[in-house]
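If you are new to this repository, start here. Below is one unmodified record pulled from the training split, so you can see the exact layout before writing a loader.
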Amino acid sequence: MDTLSSLDMIFLLGGVIATAIIAGIMAGLLGVGGGIVLVPVLFWILSVTDFPPDLSMHMAVATSLATIIFTSISSARAHHKRGAVDKYLLRKWAPGIVLGALSGGLAAKYINGDGLRVIFGAIALLVAINMATPKTLVISDRLPGSAALNGAFSYVTGFFSALMGIGGGTLSVPLLVAYSVEVRRAVGTASSFGILIAVPAVIGFITAGWSVPDRPPLSLGYVNLPAAAIILPFTVGFAPVGVKIAHTVDPKWIKRAFAVFLGITAVRMLMSVVG
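And here is the target side for that same chain:
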């Protein structure tokens, strides 16, 4: 890898800290766990440092997931204090989410960097379109009673969230709202999904990347510990700020602005595969 100047390192560090602050706020505000912001920035940082391209996305996803464990705890506690966590729904979806997340983390060993970028870009683009749509999609006035269908929803949420390095809110909140779950309750419960996704997914990524060569120093599998240590204080510290905003203002315009950012990020991620 090319050696970076001191000025380059300062700019990169500043960029990571600023991104971590935004990720923490978004985790509390929209229940997205922060990974939807962290992954593309970490990937970009690794890319500009001439890091092996087939490892960049794996390291970005796994390191993001490691921070989500603690960010989600901070966000979930803040939502719980406001009575916004649906414990019945949490228990109902927990087994499928955990199994899906562990499967996703282990499956990463067999998916190359381009594959992870396609998955991230395609799903992020769909999420951005959904966020930008003024009218919320409504499928039913209640969640399905079928255990199999709820198991499928939760497994898919856990599996793809793990492969994208994100908390469960990015996928589960639109789904829950489509089944008429009140948006603040969906966001609050999704913050707890993030813990259930990140822990097994990180175990999977550590296992999958344990013997992979050319990883940065102080890495456990695909998880880089120094990067996680820099990010964590800011994501954890600013998650409650996002929760406070979510319970005091209408997040409609913030959602739309975030949708634009996410759409641009998704398109750039997809273009990096074909470019």
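Two things worth knowing about this chain: The beta strands are 219-220, 223-224. Residues 53-81 form the longest helix (29 residues).
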